Amino acid sequence: MSNLDDVREEYEFLDADDRYRLLIDLGRQLEPMPAALKTDATLVRGCSASVWVYPMPREDGTLHFLADSNASITKGIIALILLAVQDRPARAILGTDIAETLAPFDLKRQLSSSRTQGVPNMIALVRETAERYAREG
């Protein structure tokens, strides 16, 4: 996947329809998540679509996340969130204000409220995961 700065730069120049398509394309670029990992334990609560997020701690101390959704645009939103935290140490993730990092995308204005209602829950799950690994590490 691209880095967040590149995506933001491209996003700023697009109209609403193309922004929607860009998010869908980001979702398509997510690493495949095996069906066996799509369980109740990895399900993000409070989303209108089903969203699963699975953390994979790496030996170098970073966290790598697998994610998927049954809705294309929601899959793009979780992909965008992961661009802010992917392959970073848990403490660095905790030091990142993910919502603020995503603010330039103005998702609430670009998408319907049903599409964005789960964003805080997705961010919370990533943060809770980072907190857990930061305590263990």
Protein model, in words:
By secondary structure, the protein is of the alpha+beta class. It has a single domain, classed as Sufe protein. Chain: A (Alpha-Beta Complex), CATH 3.90.1010. Helices cover 53% and strands 12% of the residues. It has helices spanning 4-12, 16-28, 72-85, 90-94, 98-102, 107-110, 113-116, 119-136; strands spanning 51-57, 62-69, 88-89. A three-stranded antiparallel sheet has the order 1-2-3. A hairpin with a 4-residue loop joins β1 and β2 (62-69). The protein is globular and about 45 Å long. The two termini are 27 Å apart. The mean pLDDT is 92.
Name the descriptors.
137 residues; alpha+beta; Sufe protein. Chain: A; 3-stranded antiparallel beta sheet; 8 helices
Summary?
By secondary structure, the protein is α+β, with helices and mostly antiparallel strands.
Question: How are the elements arranged and paired?
Answer:
Layout (H helix, E strand, L loop, with lengths): L3 H9 L3 H13 L22 E7 L4 E8 L2 H14 L2 E2 H5 L3 H5 L4 H4 L2 H4 L2 H18 L1
Helix pairs in contact: 2-3, 3-8
Largest sheet, described in full? 3 strands, antiparallel
Q: What percentage of amino acids are in beta strands? A: 5-15%
Structurally, the number of domains stands at: 1
Output the number of helix runs.
Answer: 8
Order of helices and strands: HHEEHEHHHHH
CATH architect. name: Alpha-Beta Complex
Q: Quick one: CATH class?
A: Alpha Beta
Structural class: alpha+beta
Give the termini distance in whole angstroms.
27 Å
Strand numbers in spatial order across the main sheet: 1-2-3
Tell me the quaternary state. Answer: single chain
| Helix share bin | 40-55%
* Count of extended strands: 3
Radius of gyration: 14 Å
CATH topology, by name, is Sufe protein. Chain: A
